[in-house]
Amino acid sequence: MGIITSMFRYEFMTNAFAAAGIAAVVSGIVGYFLVMRAQTFAGHALSHIGFAGATGAVLIGLAPLWGLIGFTVAAGIVMGLLSERISNRDVAIGVVLALALGFGLLFLHYYTAFASQATALLFGNVLAVDRGMIATLAILGIITLGGLAAIMRPLIFASLQPELAEAKGVPLRFVSTAFLAVVAVAVSECAQIVGVLLVFTLMVGPPAAAQRLTTGLWSGLAASALIALAEAWLGLTLAFYTDWPVSFCIAMLSAAGYFAALARGRHGQAGVLEDAA
């Protein structure tokens, strides 16, 4: 126990655990709906779009986080407005992603001194998080989960039974747009921990595992958040004692968790609508 607790003697480790905990819980909960709606490509695309926003922010003298949030939220809204139906989403997402990556290349062309910050954004640097960033992540987490709670019931209905939801008057385009805006903020938080290239580790791996281990909505959300939290904290612990990159450790644990859940078989989501009713 003394060996385990020794890492908390360092302030950067306590800060890292706090920041990773916030991002993991938010990512696990938001990611549950992302996986349920078969929009994992959207989460991946938004993270790459956020990189373009971060480079643009640095170019004009702002903190990378605000550029990341600004670009991802704007892109999420555009994606939602372009198409509310699952069959058309990939095309809309691909178009917005290509445009944003083009802007990212342009920004890097004009700001070549961005190399160290670019590496941190691509692969994460949770060990450099300070208390100010923790407070920012906590506020963003509250906003994200509050927004998700506000649209959760129509979101579930529109995700599992879109035709019936449309017939009942559920505004599919608004729900899709609002959800992608929520995902955008969650992606921005997750990117602070594992980087934009590895957002899948916390936003897809734990929720996918949870949906194979549970059948109900609330049990699935709880399992997704707990799995993401465990993987983030275990990844930090493993990185501290092995000197491996934190993002690699979390990604490895995320993959292991998903494959372990996959081996147990799929339970399905038969109880999701009942729990949300």
Q: Which structural class best describes the helix and strand composition?
A: mainly alpha
Rg, rounded, reads 18 Å
Distance between the termini: 45 Å
Topology pattern, helix = H, strand = E: HHHHHHHHHHHHHH
Morphology: globular
The description of the largest β-sheet is: none
Number of strands: 0
Low-confidence stretches: none
Helix content: over 70%
Summed over residues and divided by their number, the pLDDT gives a mean of 85
The helix tally amounts to: 14
Beta-strand percentage range: under 5%
Please describe what this structure looks like.
This protein is mainly α. Helix content is 81%, strand content 0%. The protein is built from 14 helices and no strands. It has helices at residues 2-5, 11-36, 40-59, 64-82, 86-110, 115-123, 131-160, 162-167, 172-194, 200-203, 205-213, 217-242, 246-263, 272-276. The longest helix is centred in the middle third of the chain and has 30 residues, at 131-160. The model has no long low-confidence stretch (mean pLDDT 85).
Describe the SSE topology.
Elements: H1 2-5, H2 11-36, H3 40-59, H4 64-82, H5 86-110, H6 115-123, H7 131-160, H8 162-167, H9 172-194, H10 200-203, H11 205-213, H12 217-242, H13 246-263, H14 272-276
Keywords:
277 residues; mainly alpha
Compact description:
This protein has 14 helices and no strands. It has 277 residues and is an all-alpha fold.
